[in-house]
Amino acid sequence: ADAALDFTIASRQLDQIQWMADAIDLFLGTAGAEIRISSGNTTKASLSGDEIPRSDKATTEGCAQIQPVTINRRILFVDRSRKKIFTFVYDFNIDGYDSLEITATSEHIAGEQFSTLGEQVNIALGPVGVTRRPDPRCYFVRSDGQLICLTYFQSEKVIGFTRFVTDGKFVAVTAIPQTGGLPDQVWAIVERFSATKRFVEVFDSEANEFLNERSWLSLQTDCAKVYDVNGTSTTVFAGLSHLEGRQVRCVGDGADLGLKTVAGGQITLADPVSRSMEIGLDYVSTLEPMRPAIV
User: Fold this and answer.
1) Which of 163, 82, 160, 161 is nearest to 127 (CA)?
2) If you average pLDDT over residues 159-168, what whole number do you get?
3) Nearest to 167, CA basis, from 285, 287, 282, 250
4) Which residue, 50, 113, 246, 250, has fewest beta-carbon neighbours within 10 Å?
5) Are 179 and 202 in contact (CB under 8 A)?
């Protein structure tokens, strides 16, 4: 590479470098440790090619080959087992960095799982995508095809996990920022219905088709298609060949119209819809609240 810096890090063991990240200083994640790289010159903050940098072993968790996430001044990374998520925390008691496991109270997120037959299933975290607006969220693809969302709002002490389970398997995820004050978009590649089909889908939270039509704009079904009926009463909705033979949830004019089965690329409703329509795969949401505090 042009104008590259080439240094050898003194260490008792030879670990492959898995990633590099910056949070004021430069951090290296290796298979056996996390290393902080800073200027060897105390009067010079930045690295240059005419001096030997200082390398300090910050923690010894070991990292997976998954690019970490930097949220403000915190680096979030997946350990080499791909089952735990850690962050760097500066500890004044030791005058240095220490690791804090975010998944310590959520071992079910990527720990050992069991199938309906009681067989042990090995689960691991994979590709990651990050949204910054409206709140910091990290999306991890799990090896069993589920999508894990980590809401990480450290300043408000809001840290929690959510699982996305769909009719298929999530393969990849990324986030794309939007302008004009709109929230970041989450895009995913999902394997549905067969091992040879891949769907590129977006988590649409600002569907313009529902402006002035219903009190929420986000889609509430998976792999959905939306229709702007525009005042014309309609009972037949076509263009659903991608959901052929599947049972779909129908949300028309802001009301739940029940389940229908797609046949011939279309569905037929019992009652007409005149404003807007959303048709997609149904899913069930489960909320597990914390135990109430007793005062």
Assistant:
1) 82
2) 90
3) 282
4) 50
5) no
